[in-house]
Amino acid sequence: MAAAAAKTTPVKTIPTAFQGEWLAQPQACTGNIPEDGVLISATTLEAGEATSTVLKVLTLSAVRIRVYTDDEGEQTPGDPGDAHAGRSWQTLALSNKGQTLRQTVALAGKPYTFTFSRCQPAADAGQ
Predict the structure, then answer these.
(1) Domain that holds residue 21
(2) What single string gives the DSSP state of each residue in the chain?
(3) Which tens digit of pLDDT belongs to each residue from 2-37?
(4) What is the pTM of this model?
(5) How many domains does the chain have?
């Protein structure tokens, strides 16, 4: 008999491994997220002028989660339309030892996938 699929209990925060400043092109952290980047905290995702507040998080695997959010502001660059608001979900997946993030969002019934690199900490002054 096949083993039953593991049940996932939703939580309200994004795991630490997914948090941080993610950019379309690898570069040093600036603290200011460009239009083609995303800042992920335990309870929010910020991209450009859009902010998504986490409602619940489902763990799909050790490196993949589904995040349900309440959204406000403009959409991520490249998405159709000028603005979005309301509730949505997105899947986040880590690869490359946690240095690459793949974000898949569903907008207007179509999936859009974006790939980001974790920003690199700026070198300490004086070194």
Answers:
(1) 16-115
(2) -PPPPPP---BSS--GGG-EEEESS--B--SS--TTEEEE-SSEEEETTEEEEEEEEEEEETTEEEEEEEEESPPPTTSSSS---EEEEEEEEEETTTTEEEEEEEETTEEEEEEEEEPBPPPPTT-
(3) 444 445 778 999 999 999 999 988 776 777 777 788
(4) 0.79
(5) 1
